[in-house]
């Protein structure tokens, strides 16, 4: 593939995302413009019609407004000024987005490099904002005008966290000290202007005989507010897509940047003269970026560095060629192996094991180099002939190293099918979304449960609310109705929803607070998404289902990722559970894990844990 085609292929995905974002934004922008033409009634509302605002309405939100604003004239002024400000901000943002659309993106790359992509000490001192950053500042101002922000402003207009003035901050930057700026605190809830508009429209609806404004005009205002918010979110998406594309272009430029000799008129690469000049005025100048500057000119070399650079590149080429030959040989071996017929169910590999000379049969292991050994010999190699750190071993045939975790095991015998493995392929294909292995397994198991018992309900426990959120998204994508008990303010409603509605089959609970004291005998399956360190919490979770009044058998499903910390943790916890079972009791301690156990968890060779 030619370099030009390779470049176009790399940029094609960014071009597609930018085009898609532009198309989605243009449709919403047209809708907002049309609604703007229809929403003039509120601005021209007579103040006489608002004169009885405080006398007629006594709702809570109106009382809050009356405490903040003394009369209706101030309210109408705040609404008019808020709409005007947001309209002006919107025009400024759309003007910047039009500039991004009409100008070739290559024209932004150089300015973006000096501004934020590859900043250096010199560029920071002489920094001039690029078009992307200027538009981003306009977007933040626009965001503040249509959403709720309690405090904080753009970093160009406020003091930083230390309370320093801009002059003091500039002196610190010249000395190489950079402080974090104010954080913008807020969320995408209703702005003050929107709250006032909704309150006024509510007043107008409840006092229709007193005013001349119709419900249609009020609905148009609300539609405009929602459309403006939707347009803003699409503007942010488009800006981010353009930003990523400019960064990708800069990445391509760096990829094709070649080593070159220093020009005669360039400063000394050691920067001794430059640093000496800086240190004369500021002893601590450029302390934070000296190491960065060293790598910014790594592609520029001196004449005396040519032999060492050549030797380095030749060595890297030799290593790469040898690695390529090795990988290519493995590919040919595996392709020939693919053509054999013993890969079918029950087939046997007639090749002999290089060590014991027995036929490999139906089960054998394959190292990274492609050589195969019987399971007994590979176990002996791992136990007795591993490297010093006991994490890798040498192939007896070619002496290449292979980590224990990279050894592949082949088994041509088909495992006995169970009710959870005996699921038709069509059901697996119906799983939607780009899911991780564990989340996909959870959804698959839910499909099997619903297929075998349509009335069965399931509890899903996890220690992490973020993981429960991810599971919730996967359930939505696969049309599995659920309720959750980790959302604040909706505990009782969601609990009743799970208990009473037949279509809600799944309940998501945090293991820390969602299990204690609940009677959930409507469920018969319990999912433990990860190992639980506290045995008492695990028993509490299972006890929500397996208790007096339960008429169905309780099934507990544990989800572990093989060859990870989860599997090692489960082995250690299981060993404690077996010891407790022998003693005829169970522990109520919150933490049974010792320091030795923690060492074993993070040690690859923890197979000796009983």
From TrEMBL:
<dbReference type="GO" id="GO:0006974">
    <property type="term" value="P:DNA damage response"/>
</dbReference>
<dbReference type="Pfam" id="PF00271">
    <property type="entry name" value="Helicase_C"/>
</dbReference>
<dbReference type="InterPro" id="IPR049730">
    <property type="entry name" value="SNF2/RAD54-like_C"/>
</dbReference>
<dbReference type="InterPro" id="IPR001841">
    <property type="entry name" value="Znf_RING"/>
</dbReference>
<keyword id="KW-0479">Metal-binding</keyword>
<dbReference type="GO" id="GO:0061630">
    <property type="term" value="F:ubiquitin protein ligase activity"/>
</dbReference>
<keyword id="KW-0808">Transferase</keyword>
<dbReference type="InterPro" id="IPR017907">
    <property type="entry name" value="Znf_RING_CS"/>
</dbReference>
<dbReference type="InterPro" id="IPR048695">
    <property type="entry name" value="SHPRH_helical_2nd"/>
</dbReference>
<dbReference type="InterPro" id="IPR027417">
    <property type="entry name" value="P-loop_NTPase"/>
</dbReference>
<keyword id="KW-0862">Zinc</keyword>
<dbReference type="GO" id="GO:0008270">
    <property type="term" value="F:zinc ion binding"/>
</dbReference>
<dbReference type="GO" id="GO:0000209">
    <property type="term" value="P:protein polyubiquitination"/>
</dbReference>
<dbReference type="Pfam" id="PF00097">
    <property type="entry name" value="zf-C3HC4"/>
</dbReference>
<keyword id="KW-0378">Hydrolase</keyword>
<dbReference type="InterPro" id="IPR001650">
    <property type="entry name" value="Helicase_C-like"/>
</dbReference>
<protein>
    <submittedName>
        <fullName>SHPRH</fullName>
        <ecNumber>2.3.2.27</ecNumber>
        <ecNumber>3.6.4.-</ecNumber>
    </submittedName>
</protein>
<dbReference type="Pfam" id="PF21324">
    <property type="entry name" value="SHPRH_helical-2nd"/>
</dbReference>
<keyword id="KW-0012">Acyltransferase</keyword>
<dbReference type="GO" id="GO:0016787">
    <property type="term" value="F:hydrolase activity"/>
</dbReference>
<keyword id="KW-0863">Zinc-finger</keyword>
<dbReference type="InterPro" id="IPR052583">
    <property type="entry name" value="ATP-helicase/E3_Ub-Ligase"/>
</dbReference>
<dbReference type="InterPro" id="IPR018957">
    <property type="entry name" value="Znf_C3HC4_RING-type"/>
</dbReference>
<dbReference type="InterPro" id="IPR013083">
    <property type="entry name" value="Znf_RING/FYVE/PHD"/>
</dbReference>
<dbReference type="GO" id="GO:0005634">
    <property type="term" value="C:nucleus"/>
</dbReference>
């Amino acid at each position: 593939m030619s370099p030009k085609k390779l470049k176009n292929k790399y940029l094609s995905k960014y071009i597609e995302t930018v085009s898609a974002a532009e198309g989605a934004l243009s449709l919403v922008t047209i809708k907002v413009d049309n609604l703007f033409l229809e929403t003039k009634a509120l601005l021209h509302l007579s103040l006489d019609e608002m004169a009885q605002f405080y006398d007629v309405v006594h709702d809570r939100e109106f009382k809050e407004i009356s405490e903040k604003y003394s009369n209706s004239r101030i309210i109408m002024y705040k609404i008019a000024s808020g709409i005007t400000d947001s309209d002006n901000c919107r025009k400024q943002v759309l003007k910047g987005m039009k500039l991004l659309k009409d100008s070739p993106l290559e024209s932004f790359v150089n300015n973006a490099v000096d501004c934020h992509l590859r900043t250096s000490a010199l560029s920071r001192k002489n920094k001039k904002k690029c078009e992307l950053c200027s538009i981003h500042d306009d977007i933040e101002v626009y965001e503040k005008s249509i959403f709720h922000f309690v405090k904080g402003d753009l970093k160009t207009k406020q003091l930083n966290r230390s309370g320093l003035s801009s002059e003091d901050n500039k002196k610190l930057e010249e000395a190489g000290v950079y402080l974090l700026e104010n954080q913008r605190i807020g969320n995408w809830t209703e702005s003050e202007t929107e709250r006032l508009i909704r309150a006024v429209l509510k007043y107008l609806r409840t006092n229709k005989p007193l005013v001349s404004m119709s419900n249609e005009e009020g609905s148009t205002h609300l539609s405009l507010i929602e459309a403006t918010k939707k347009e803003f979110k699409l503007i942010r998406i488009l800006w981010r897509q353009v930003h990523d594309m400019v960064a990708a272009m800069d990445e391509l430029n760096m990829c094709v940047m070649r080593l070159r000799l220093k020009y005669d008129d360039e400063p000394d690469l050691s920067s001794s003269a430059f640093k000496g000049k800086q240190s004369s005025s500021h002893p601590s100048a450029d302390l934070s970026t000296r190491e960065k500057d060293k790598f910014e000119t790594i592609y520029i070399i001196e004449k005396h560095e040519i032999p060492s650079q050549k030797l380095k590149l030749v060595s890297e080429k030799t290593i790469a060629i040898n690695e390529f030959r090795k990988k290519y040989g493995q590919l040919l071996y595996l392709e020939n192996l693919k053509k054999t017929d013993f890969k079918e169910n029950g087939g046997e590999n007639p090749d002999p094991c290089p060590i014991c000379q027995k036929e490999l049969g139906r089960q054998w292991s394959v190292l990274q180099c492609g050589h195969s050994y019987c399971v007994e010999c590979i176990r002996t190699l791992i136990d007795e002939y591993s490297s010093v750190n006991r994490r890798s071993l040498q192939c007896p045939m070619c002496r290449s190293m292979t980590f224990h975790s990279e050894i592949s095991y082949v088994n041509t015998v088909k495992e006995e099918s169970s009710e959870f493995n005996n699921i038709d392929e069509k059901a697996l294909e119906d799983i939607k979304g780009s899911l991780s292995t564990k989340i996909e397994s959870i959804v698959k198991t839910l499909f099997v449960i619903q297929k075998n018992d349509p009335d069965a309900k399931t509890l899903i426990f996890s220690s992490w609310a973020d993981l429960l959120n991810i599971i919730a998204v996967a359930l939505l994508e696969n049309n599995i109705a659920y309720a959750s008990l980790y959302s604040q303010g909706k505990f009782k409603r969601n609990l009743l929803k799970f208990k009473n509605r037949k279509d809600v089959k799944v309940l998501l609970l945090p293991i820390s607070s969602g299990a204690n004291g609940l009677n959930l005998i409507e469920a018969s399956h319990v999912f433990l998404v990860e190992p639980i360190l506290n045995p008492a919490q695990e028993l509490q979770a299972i006890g929500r289902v397996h208790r007096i009044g339960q008429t169905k058998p309780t099934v507990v499903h544990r989800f572990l990722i093989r060859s990870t910390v989860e599997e090692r943790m489960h082995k250690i916890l299981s060993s404690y559970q077996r010891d407790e079972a022998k003693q005829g009791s169970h522990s109520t301690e919150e933490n049974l894990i010792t320091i030795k156990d923690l060492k074993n968890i993070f040690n690859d060779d923890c197979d000796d844990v009983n």
